[in-house]
Design a protein that fits this description.
Keywords: Cytoplasm, Methyltransferase, RNA-binding, rRNA processing, S-adenosyl-L-methionine, Transferase. It catalyses: adenosine(1518)/adenosine(1519) in 16S rRNA + 4 S-adenosyl-L-methionine = N(6)-dimethyladenosine(1518)/N(6)-dimethyladenosine(1519) in 16S rRNA + 4 S-adenosyl-L-homocysteine + 4 H(+). One of its GO terms (molecular function) is 16S rRNA (adenine(1518)-N(6)/adenine(1519)-N(6))-dimethyltransferase activity. Belongs to the class I-like SAM-binding methyltransferase superfamily. rRNA adenine N(6)-methyltransferase family. RsmA subfamily. Pfam families: RrnaAD (PF00398). By secondary structure, the chain is an alpha/beta fold. The chain has 2 domains: 203 residues, 3-Layer(aba) Sandwich (Rossmann fold), CATH 3.40.50.150; 71 residues, rRNA adenine dimethylase, C-terminal domain (Helicase, Ruva Protein, domain 3, Orthogonal Bundle), CATH 1.10.8. It contains 12 helices and 9 strands. It has a 7-stranded mixed sheet, sandwiched between helices. Strands 1-8 form a two-stranded antiparallel ribbon. Strand 2, helix 3 and strand 3 form a beta-alpha-beta unit. Helix 2 packs across helix 3 and helix 8 runs antiparallel to helix 9. The protein is elongated. The termini are far apart. 40% of the residues are buried. Bound molecules: S-adenosylmethionine (SAM). The site of S-adenosylmethionine (SAM) has 23 residues, from strand 1, helix 3 and strand 3. S-adenosylmethionine binds next to strand 1, helix 3 and strand 3.
Length: 292
């Protein structure tokens, strides 16, 4: 029986053996607590028939736990220096593939089709590089991939915004962009002490389970997201002021914006943060009549 990778001693040994120096610019904060890793994996509810996609395996701490709990793991790692290390640390597992690629540039749909043949249940499980958490999550959700969802570690502050409900100060266009596709829930708060090196911010794990269909049906998704982003451009401003100043030709279409708000029963003096995702959906469909 070999020792788990995610202990302070084994991690130090591996780093020393390969003379590995962390690159801050790549968000390299490795997990050194096996219990935390096991709990993350539990939240993914994998079975022996599941596939797992990992982003940024580092030296393999999470990859190892995923390999033990699923049928197949495919991990994307951008840092070439980690490839020989992963080959070594993951050598006891024959169900892991590491792809040397930037996840933001990868054709994930193709990789899933090739790597997970005969596997129906695929989850993304990762301790994300914190400098690109939002682009990674949005890429994986908007590409309409055949995945059940994501269980990912990220900055607590971003997790709070993603899972926020209307009427809270964290609720905004990011909450809507993600909750449009998924049911979002923070499942763990994680202290800085379980990382090497320790990050400057607190961390959390969120679980995003894809909805069978988006939470609201809208006529034009792109315009819906334009309306939501515009509505939060300046949080102190009313929805009317934000929409007139942000939408294309909004200033000259104030009357039409007022009409659309009236038709959807939304008081123009409300602030974006008080609107539910369903209200944004109805508003966007009304505004579409005047803006497309
Ligand atoms: N999974 C490991 C762990 O938990 O110990 C490492 C997590 S560390 C927070 C983030 C990892 O993502 C690093 O290994 C880093 O090199 C990698 N990474 C950073 N940007 C990436 C990108 N765009 N695509 C793929 N991997 C990336």
């Amino acid at each position: 029986m070999h020792k788990d990778i995610a202990t302070p001693i084994r991690t130090q040994e591996i780093l020393k053996k390969y003379g590995f120096a962390f690159k801050k610019s790549l968000g390299q904060n490795f997990l050194i607590d096996t219990n935390i890793l096991r709990r993350i994996v539990e939240h993914a509810e994998l079975t022996e028939a599941s596939g797992a996609i990992e982003i940024g395996p580092g030296i393999g701490a999470l990859t190892e736990q995923l390999a033990k709990s699923s049928k197949k793991v495919t991990a994307f790692e951008i840092d070439q220096r980690l490839l020989p290390i992963l080959k070594d640390t993951l050598s006891p597992y024959n169900n892991v593939t590491v792809i040397h690629e930037d996840i933001l540039k990868a054709d994930v749909e193709k990789v899933i089709a090739e790597e997970f043949i005969g596997i129906d249940d695929v989850m993304v499980v990762a301790n994300l590089p914190y400098y690109v958490t939002t682009p990674i999550i949005l890429k994986l959700l908007t590409e309409n991939l055949p995945i059940r969802g994501l269980v990912v570690m990220l900055q607590k502050e971003v997790a709070d915004r993603i899972a926020a409900k209307p009427g809270t100060k964290e609720y905004g266009s990011l909450s809507i962009a993600i909750q449009y596709y998924t049911e979002a829930e923070t499942v763990m708060i994680v202290p800085k002490t379980v990382f090497m090196p320790q990050p400057n911010v607190d961390s959390a794990v969120i679980r995003l389970v894809k909805r069978a269909k988006p939470i609201v049906e809208v006529k034009d998704e792109e315009f819906f997201f334009t309306v939501t982003r515009s509505s939060f451009a300046q949080r102190r401003k009313t929805i009317l002021n934000n929409l007139t100043s942000q939408l294309p030709d909004g200033k000259s279409k104030k009357d039409q914006i007022l009409k659309a708000l009236g038709h959807t029963g939304i008081d123009p003096t409300r602030r974006g943060e008080t609107l539910s995702i369903e209200e944004f959906g109805r508003l966007s469909d009304e505004l579409l009549l005047y803006f497309k």
